[in-house]
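Task card 7
Instruction: Convert sequence to structure tokens.
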Amino acid sequence: MDKLLQSLGAHDCASRVLGKTVEIAPFERPAEILKWLKDFSQNFPKHVVENWIAVDDMPLESMHHKMGGHCVLTTISHGFLKHHIRISEDLITSRESPVSVAAFRA
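Output:
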């Protein structure tokens, strides 16, 4: 979590942590993210999550069909880099509704 926030701060990205996913099982990151989104919606029904992105070093889009168009793929060795900001912005602005939540596991 600290690394992610430091990296976002280093690239002048304002960030606010709303929560984090829990580990369900190794390599089940899409299920973790989708569960977090469902739980968030149930706990905060006035805050409808229609648009979100996930930043991860796993190929989430190829792991679950619901992850398509929501993922920014990083690497374990380099993490979140400046060019990932542009990718994130492109995903955010390609959606009709504003981004509500970014889900991740620390």
